[in-house]
Queue: 4 jobs
Job 1
Amino acid sequence: MNLSPIPCAVRSTCPYCGVGCGVTATPLPDGAIAIAGDASHAANRGRLCVKGAALGETIGLEGRLLHPAVREDGALREASWEEALERVAGGLRAIIDEHGPDAVALYVSGQMLTEDYYVANKLMKGYIGSANIDTNSRLCMSSAVAGHKRAFGADLVPGCYEDFDLADMVVLVGSNTAWCHPILFQRIARLKDARPEVRIVVIDPRRTATCELADLHLPVKPGTDVWLFNGLLSYLAKSGVQDTAFIDAHTNGLAQALDAAQVDCADPLAVARHCRVEPSDLMAFYGGFAATTKVITAFSQGVNQSSAGTDKVNSIINCHLLTGRIGQPGMGPFSITGQPNAMGGREVGGLANMLAAHMDLDNPQHRDTVQTFWSSPCIAEKGGLKAVDLFKAIEAGTVKAVWVIATNPMVSMPDANQVQRALEKCELVVVSDIVANTDTNAFADVLLPALGWGEKDGTVTNSERLISRQRAFLPAPGEARADWRILADVARRMGFDGFDFDSSHAVFDEHARLSVFRNGGARVFNLAGLCGLTAHEYDTLEPVQWPVRRGADGALQGSARLFADRRFAHADGKARFIATAPRAPVNAVDPEYPLVLNTGRVRDQWHTMSRTGRAPRLADHTAEAFIDMHPQDALLYGVREGELARVSSQWGAMVARVQHGGGIARGSVFVPIHWNGQTASDARVGTLVNPAVDPLSGEPEFKHTPVQVERFGVAWHAFVLSRSELALDQVAHWTRVQGRGFARYEMAGRGQLRERAAWARTLLGVTDDADWLDYEDASDGVYRAVHVVGERIEQCIFLSPRTDLPARAWLASLFASESLTRLDRAGLLAGQALGMRLDTGPTVCSCFGVGRNTICDAIVKQDLKTVPEVTACLKAGGNCGSCVPEIKVLLMQTRAREAA
């Protein structure tokens, strides 16, 4: 099979966050792929964050699912496509015939392309006749969808990225933009550099890297956003800054919204107390918002992932409606989506309570429109099961088959142990994935190999409604197929017409035509200008924002902003103020679980790490899962920084290392979401997260779970760097980190090791005649060993009863050498770099591989005072800028130490 890449540069789109950056992929003579930012793409103008820049390191076939597999006698075996598809189609048909269409379900993903999403939605809602198709986007942006629909009449993002350039005040709510949407953050940073008078406000319980750019940080008590914005609404009304003409002509519901706000939030001092912020800071925010016309309020998961997420969204929108700050340049509420195609999924009805083309399941005319267009035998007549309820129904046995596509619910869902119970009980579990081994795949009855990024062809839509092409530059590996094709194959085998697509272009054209069918201007989502594209026009399509029409000259005309005409999507054309009565999170802390768990992303990883975990440079910044907590809380609960601790809730538990990041208030802890059963022994934070959801959006409350933290006692700590994989079944705790040409294992154990050398040899699989150098201090419990093959290091192990093990960076550098010097061997046994080998320290700048020690040394020796000076000296901070906040802190700390 020929796996050579297509020999030309290809313009595509990054598969990570909702910023939707354009990339170029250029094959190199050695078979590698050079990834760069697409300078012509409006979303990023050539810039990429470190995750995007490292995409070339993630496209190898190691660990790929390349052939269909079916479970037989408890074990998976390779199968033909014919057998696998018949197993899926026949299994679904048998269950539907016996139990009805609602006994089957699809659980899909914002990682899918719009064309894939469209076919999945068409199959479930128009042919199977059930709305039991939901998506992992339910976990990140469904509250924004519900808020938009309540306020505007449809799921519509009013603004565009250019509005950030034009704003005089940017408010970031529940968004660590610097780490989660780095290119958008750098756009804001450039705005601040060009116009220092622009005010940046960050509203977040944690002091994150984003706060380093802020003029004001409001560290609100978790779950109090509605109090904060209801207070702002009340303040704006009392201050007389409302746009009365706009309100009277273009909105409804202000009186009710103000009445709700006045109950608890009329007094700013009371709001400050409830939100646990300084009254002076609160008034600075309120006063600044009132005095500034061009305000962008951008919000993300900190708002959406809540049992009151929809009300949080509407409390923000209310403030913009009151002041008329919407639909005009430089102003408006702005939902920053988490996934690359969360928006595209919403366009085709990927959520269980939506129909394709922004039509509604509860609207009989919309149902008839979609069914007529599809010529389908039926149409779902009621909303389906949303993600959390779906897996509860699987466990209860009412849903007997689930097809999981491009997602890993065993890691990403709340109450993940319940998800496991559900999959264990489910009669038929089908999984389409690119990776052979995931926590979810372990429960599959049928595994279907899908195309990955670089192999897929279609479209995605970013946070500003910008449709971009994702183009293939690699051939399909093994027997992998596009998701839309797999779905269509199953549909035809189930006896359904309407799935004779021969390309992603054909799917997109049908999607565009449905957006126009019986529209007549009633629906804002409209792709009229994209109907009837030829295959060449589709292949060469430039990014364009919907609604899309054709001008008189035939040129495509996108829409940067919505509501400039002050007409909204409700039947009367008016926007709605929504009364948002504040309410606390569903689960309150108590003496048994006294701390609030907040979850989220780290800078250089993505979701469950099936892609980013393959790139060595992305592992260097944050190698392990961690528990970030306040030092006083750590003292109170008997845990120490650098040591392992167990976090538990009434739903589950996990183990990670304690750290004091300096940005978290007392009473809270933060744990990242990325680690899974393939990368750590016991670090799935989803097992802890409570399953409470917003009653409207169904979005889970990832930001507020009561937990306890306790010491995880171990007798020893160790790490191994090894060119070969290790079996770690007998180790109490471990984390696997991908290095360049090796894997790094951080581990700890509970039993005393009597014969350390013998134990280490067994763990590493080293024979008696191997070149094995070791050192042991029996009295101190310290053991170090290195396994050499020829002159090259093969493995090394460092073990101690304490956590003060040698630095890893210089050891990792040895694996790039073809031979070890005498000083290298001596350093390995001494546990420190000797001679010219320098310990660069933990990675700060992943783009250029610059470590903390290197930066601090340069600050001192070169007398560096600013980030630009550090960048000029070391390149650090000169690409995506994600590390700039950390460099600022190092400058401050290092210069303070030197001055002391």
Job 2
Amino acid sequence: MLKAIKFVTYSAIVLALLATAVFYGALTLSLPTLSGSTSTRSIKDTTYLQRDDLGTSIIIAQNRSDASYALGFAHGQDRFFQMDLLRRNAAGELSALFGEAALPIDENRRFHQFRKRSEEAFKRLPKADQRELETYTNGVNDALAQFSVPSFEYLVTQTQPQPWKPEDSLLAIFSMYLDLQGRNLERDLLTDALYQQFGDDIASFLLQPSPFQAALDGSKIKTKPEPAPELPSSLLETAQRVEIEKTIAVGSNNWAVEGSLTRNGKAMLSDDMHLGLAVPVIWYRTQLNIQSGDDLLQITGVSLPGAPAIVVGSNGHVAWGFTNGYMDTADWYRLSPKDKTRLETETIPLKEGEHKYLLEQSEFGPVRVIDGEKYALSWVAHRDYAVNLNLMKLEQAETVKQALDVSKATGIPVQNMVLADSKGNIAWQATGAIPDRKQPLARPVPSSAYDKRWQQSAKDVPFIVNPKSERIWTGNSRVVSAKEDQRYGNGGYALGARSAQIKRRLMEKDIFDIEDFYAIQLDNEAVFLQRWYELLLELLTRDDTLFQEDIKALSSWNNCACEDSVGYTLVRKYRDELIDRLFAPLETHLEEQQLSLSLIERQIEPALWQLVKEQPESWLPKNTADWNQFLVMAYLEMRDNLMIEMTGHANGSLQALKWGAVNQLEVQHPFSRQIPILGSILDMPPVAGFGDRFMPAVQGRTFGASQRLIVQPGDEINGVLTLPGGQSGHPLSPFYRKGFESYSNNAFTPLLPGPPVQQISFEPN
């Protein structure tokens, strides 16, 4: 018997070792070849793809088209599966990879018919842009053809990679529309529900303007707090404790100062786009060197695998960066019985077979049925002007003025584009697809009120050049004037506290260095939470014996989202708890219609603060004697639940609640979330949390700065470009983790690439 057990044990070990060897063997075979030479019919002149020690793709070409081929080849080698996910996410084709579990996502995406729209959009592109995408596509597919074994993601999913198509690059842009605007498409429906179901007083109370405003012109939307309205007792009685999602997904920053505020007279730009963080990271370090006669055009920055453009970067004359604009780019129209609709069948491929999805369409947009009524969505992403390659025109701009002129009709989700040039100029512009309709809607209206100007893009895009302050800043909140806000609308603006903090930092100095800008990117001072800190401290000091340890933690909170701050955790989580409890009566009711206050959660600070300060009787949650008891009980339950989450029990030292542990950054591969055993191979090491919402250093557990760029055009040698991960999506690649350590330690990574360590040469065939 003992021998049999030993035999089985040894056999299991041998089989495990064999399986590991096979797995690593397959991984090794799927590594791309990064040195050598090849020939292709897709280029006109000899072209080089080099990589430095970080894996930065350094492309040397005689024309932009050849550079696109080499960039497509690099993307195909290092990031094809990521590109595949981008196109499938937009097209609603994930089920072919992951099976029927992905059908709800695919059906949601098919509502927008982005595969069909990308094919039509490609046909509308100028012939030169079509050729650009075809050449880029050839590069991707030539790289794909060189793999003798598919990358491990296809081995795990037991599927085969499908060739890239030119229109897939437009799907990659549509995927960014979903990421940047998709969550806010239902804001108008939520607003309508608030007014219809809770009345004007409660709706207006929840939607009142934020006191935190930092528009570039200094204009303010007037705030006039009204007393908290009466909450119907019926809502209070049926309320269930519900966690309202505290989205951190509004977090990009950029700013610039004129050359008069720098030591060398060149303007300085900072850009840190905040997105969900995963392995591999979304951006790809790229430098294009295009030699035209005696002139060298060098563009350094990041590209999006799936598209041939440099998204953010500098060309030696002009630097550009983006934050999400959050203007109102979607309206809902209530259809009448006279409005004609049609049914279209969307065929969703599965691993085996296919799934049919029926979509109802109208002349105003795709249709959704809500409480028996039909509503049509008009969204800018559905318009003919939504996607194009005009972003690439920035690459040749030599001044801020030229950059503004060539970017008026750029087909991307509307962004706050900030520019700086080597002559010392700076500018801001709302860049991207903006509908020409003149009156953004906050609630659905009858289809008879449809504005036909939806079909054309706005020509009156707002911009500012060299403002009197000599500074420009954006942080996803309102940038335009209060008057212009009526023209462009609120599509889910950030609260404004972060933008105000950036503005404050920029006004504190008269001369800026690279280090000063990096300090602002890493600024985690808890300015916004200061009043909540004071409120909680005053509450707990009423019973300083019971809350002795808590008061000590609060007193040493350091006024920052620092990794060792327990006090910050207590303040931050207490505010979250009050949101869940005080708005539970409304959220409980909204959930029945599959709506949520999470769509406006970041904007209900004025209402939340009023409730806590005014303490109206009708809003006091049931089973509590008075507001003091409620506020204390909410704190105790929040603290104990958090202790249980972190330690497994409610007792023990509060030191377990350090913000660095509670908000630990975990940059994971999508597969390791489903197959945890792969975590040690695929994931980046966890990092103690640093930063939070409502401050420049935005960071959550799976969210943060997707890149940190600081550059003065013409002085790129001193520029900074730090990314939270490596270039390659292959876990055995030397470039898989390169750069993450510097990112996690808040250290500089140079913008310009280092000496090449590998090179592929392409010869025209």
Job 3
Amino acid sequence: MTPNAASGPSRRNFLASTAAVTAAVAGGVPLLSACGGGSDGGSRDGTTSGKDAKELLPAYVAGNVVTPDIPSKNGSAVGFTSKLDLADLKTSVPKKLGKGGKVTVMSPFWGSPPKDGNAYYKAMNDLIGVDVVWQNQDGNTYDQKLGAVLASSEVPDVVVVPGWNMTGKIPSAIIGKFADLGPYLSGDAVKEYPNLAAIPTDAWQRSIFGGKLRGLPMPASYVTGIVPLYRQDIFEKEGYEVPRSCDEFMTFAKEATNAKAKRWACLDMKWTAFNAFGVLSGNEKSLGWNEVDGKLVHRIETEEYLEALEWTRKLFAAGVVHPDARLGKSNAADPGPKFAAGEFLVYNQDFSQWWSRTAEQAVQNPEFKIWGMDIWGHDGGAPTLWAQNPAGIFAFVNKDASESVIRDVLAVANVTAAPYGTKEYMATNYGVEGTHYTVEDGVPTKTEQGNIDVMNAYVMIASPAPTIAHPDFPEVARGQVEWQQRMGAHTKKSTFYGMQIVEPARWTNLSNDFEQLEDDVIRGRKKIGDMQQAVSDWRSKGGDKLRDWYKKLLDENGTAAG
């Protein structure tokens, strides 16, 4: 999902859910015909068709080194619920594939980067056989640095680009500046790198830019990453039933709210409302379109979109929403402390907070229990959910890189994509035992040095298939995977699911104001009629022309949403 977008969490939460030890929830498939020109032969806008893409894609060879406790189902991550036994860790990379070369990597980093040559970097480079040199950049301003570097002639060997930074001229720069990895990975060639061969095909399809396989992906489950999280302990104590429709939620909310006692039912529930009413995904522009009876319809044009906003507005009007949310701070400030204090009982946020809230309260508040509600259909029936994209962060290799550098980069990726339960996974995600982490009763815990050194670095190059593993709270891991499986059973793929689409620049900012208008409507500052007028204006200012452009794209390339 796209962090900080209308239907997404923060960048930091996204990373926690995809790149950290929790390993993976967040967001194509056709893939690139020439809808725009480019001197390097790649399309500058458009996508690549499913049939053309097949010859570009790596062969899929499922890994057999480790068997998960809970296999993937309905698009879910795989799950591990058993304790970690370091003596039983498997080896997925039996020999070093790196040839000892030097590779420079520019990547976003949140926090204070560790010193060069630290014990983690040394251990990883020795394991891989490559001298990786990190050029870490502030993740909060990464888009600015990225634009400047890609506009220059000094591009590092590897550049990591999160999906939320693929705006403006960045997509065209990706096509013009980065190498075609197809000769090394397409078809059976990928079998030289078994951990890369085990990455799901959807994630590779998402890595095709300008008609070439250019990206190394961080795979994600396509099931929505936004969960209605609730205080299960308080629900049980007070006898509240978990809602199964929008009416039931409103009934619960009115019963639970007592402003004098500083308790409200919820925060801003807009994201869950969109899911409950079956609104198309808003976490990427192309996912907002779907073909209905031969016509492309955008999410903002649907009755479901307006109905979701109206229901959320009624929650605010009923006074059941925490005051912080009414002031517009609902999903910006950290909700943890007030949630732990019981000031509100439900909020929708990134999937990763299910575990992180459990972990942070385990010692200081033993009775605290957070759980995820199943998303309900607004009328009490089964929900209609829409898939998010199967990869959201990519690493690219400089187009001027030599074959030896490309091979060394792939050697790095083959280690970082190792599955949970392997020595390579532990090295990538935890560092060196004793220095960066210890293990007690099957639960690894980072040391102070581990929290300094082992941060978001190597995990950004490539990752294994979506995985959820919490040895400290195995019941949460099981709960998360089973939630994904249940929600995945109700998840559909919209027409442009998984497509790596570059819209023409003239329409890039067409929908920018809708998130703010949504928030104004649900807080009563604007009316539904204002939204209807905004949609009408959107159509006349380019929305209808953009629809025609997408329709042409669909006619020429087909859909990969099976």
Job 4
Amino acid sequence: MAFADAPSRLSDAARFDSALRARVRQARKEFLSGATRPDLRGVSSEIYTSWVRSRELGVDAASTAVPLNPLSVTRARRLVDAATPVMKNLADQCRDSDAWGMLLDRECVQVFPLVGDARVVREGEQRGGGLGATFQEAVVGTNGAGISVERLESFLVVGEEHFREAEHNLASVGVPLRDPYGRMAGVLLMCQRLSSANHMIVPYTQTLAVAIEKQLALATSGDERALFEAFARHSRRPSLAVVGISEDVYIANNAAQQLLRDGAETDALREAVLAVADAGRSRLMTLTFEEERYRVHCRIVQLSAGRNGVVASLSRVAAPPVLAPGRRFEPPAPAADPVARAKELGFPVLVTGEPGSGRAHRVRSVASVVELDAAAAATGGAAWMAQCRELLSRGDVLIRHLDALPPTLRPGVLELIRAGAHWVAATVESVSPDFEATFPVTVAVLPLRERTADLPALVEALLADLGAARTRRTPEVMSILARYPWPGNVAQLRRLLAGILVRLEGDTISIDDLPREIASSGRRNTGEGLLARTERELVFDALREANWNRDAAAKTLGISRATMYRRIRQFGFQIPSSR
């Protein structure tokens, strides 16, 4: 039975059925024996992909050990402090039962003692449970905490669904814990012996997680909120590396985490930025880590009690060339397109940006790809999955709108991409955590309104794509196009050019060929009143009717020539210079 035909997700209650568990047990046995087509009836896609990951990571299905991960004194301190009242209450509720709970950090490492009945806790500690025990999927295989972190949502694993046989007598459910800003702070893992467990363990654990998150919110200070809000304002562009730093807080977006992979670099940056915070003045500085130089723009964020935090954006600075005596400096060749470079190196790449901003065009410009729309998977999941598997096995693929892929299909698709032999690019509006492990490269495409300098080349490329490569544009047309805000991005520009071409007489696009709403846009004031807007439209219509002759248009409107010139400047109209 093919993986694409496996159930995407069974109900939690159904997974406790003894007949279904027997099918899962048989499927696991066939899978571990290396069967090419195991019978996956009763095995959800999430469990199957977790089995695949566990096997590829070398997890021993016969092992019973719970490995330890050394803990620092301060690890997850805030999470532990916030969760302590809830965990103590849980210990009372679990007395005289065969259920127990564990508080894990973001790495699935236990940071709070086991809570439950004394007998259960003792048995768990004998197996290696306790502070420092790690429940990462890469270490102990399929379990509630591991899949919960992988999918960033609550997840239940029942009996034989666990990768290791040692856990087949229990049910485990993991629930991610988030701080007030949506960042993952840890995981609450609840376990219960299968003989007395049922699906109600899931809502029970979710209720406990909500209580912990409320405690986290209460522990968050106003200073931390102020710093995070400033950080969020400055990190809206995914490609810009941004950090937020105060004496107590360090926040970094994905771009900054990729830039600063060394802990020593992070410490050096924090020290330099805190010095700026102490000085109390925003500044631009250059820092050198190893052989890399960075320009760091530090912006002060005022906190309470006269203290400051800093939001800093980082960008690499090219090292100045060392010239031999008598040699003249030659500017470097333009940098290779990062999408093209990712393809050259074989790295899967995510292209992010607003809808219609030209994300797919960016990929097509550097690679010959077969395209697949993930939005179509919502109505035909199995068929779409089969098509995806076939295309990925044949050559390079562009998956458009990957973020529209149903959550039930995501793990399977990402697994296919990771295991495939061909290059894959995908377009998304924003990067979600489940994409990061599969796509090591992210390239942001700015909306058209923020890259008007690219407009001439883009218009030329779009006209060529529309079969009108020899069509010229007047300077006035390009000036107007550069002023327009383009709410529909590149897709809107393409539609505009296509509409003009079907009506165009000759081989030159002039101001007369532009739609009124674009040709009259000029420097629009978003707060423009009705009278001003009406006057602007009357002046524009009069100019167009007079073939852009200012004097004739002024006569039509009954205004002086000087008034007409003032209105043209006021509304930002671009008039052909000969008129």
